[in-house]
Amino acid sequence: MFTGIVEEVGTLLAREETGGAGPEADAARLRIRARKALEGVALGDSIAVNGVCLTVTGFVGAGPKGDGTAEEWTTDVMAETLRRSSLGALAAGDPVNLERAVTPHTRLGGHLVQGHVDGVGTVVSRTPGEHWEVVRVGLPPELARYVVEKGSITLDGVSLTVSAVSAADDPEPWFEVSLIPTTLRETTLGAVPPGSPVNLEVDVIAKYVERLLGARS
Fold first, then answer.
1. pLDDT of residue 6
2. What's 134's domain CATH number?
């Protein structure tokens, strides 16, 4: 479980693929540079990479104690994850948002985030403001019903508040979020141009409510 508060922007150093290339690969091993996101982390722990929950399978430069001296870590990504998220399009040198899994004593600064991507959206436009930037994102129609104004959504692992949504009958649904200077500066969202894919995770509470109400009816 995560909160959608990015702790560090790491760098994908290397990507080793098997059984194909890019989104068609059967699996991929990623090697990622990080520092803060590795503090207190041991083998088998979870780190969200652009909103995708991944397991730490190895360290480079230190032992498995997560003592803060390691600066690189590895993780294995299966075909299902490559296909259902934007990780399939990542290349060496790309920046990635990183967040360690929460502990019972972690402040819940964002909202409850599972690290399970529901779909991939597309940045439609960016509109700069005096103190923020409004970003419009297109999303798969099947996810639109879970997105509401003033509700929460996760973009590439960043917990954000929805500031506007398209009409319910819009065949190409979208939503907007307003990014404050800290988000623009401290996450990858500050440099994502229109046309780029972004991982989306809708509020899991909305999905549970829909399931429960459907069962009752």
1. 96
2. 2.40.30.20
The Cα 92–Cα 14 span in angstroms is 5
Give the 3-state secondary structure of residue 48. strand
Report residues of the chain scoring pLDDT below 50: none
> Residue 114: its pLDDT value, please?
92
Which pair of tokens denotes residue 15?
Answer: 């990507």
Q: Computed from CA positions of residues 19, 25, 27, 32, in that sequence, does the dihedral angle turn out positive or negative? A: positive
> Domain boundary at 100, 130, 161, which?
100
Give the long-range contacts of residues 165-172, CB within 8 A, separation 24 or more: 168/144, 170/144, 171/141, 172/138
Q: Tell me what percent of the chain is helix, strand and coil, each rounded to the nearest 5.
A: 20, 40, 40
Phi and psi of 72, rounded to 5°?
-140, 150
CA-CA distance, 12 to 22, in Å (whole number)?
Answer: 14
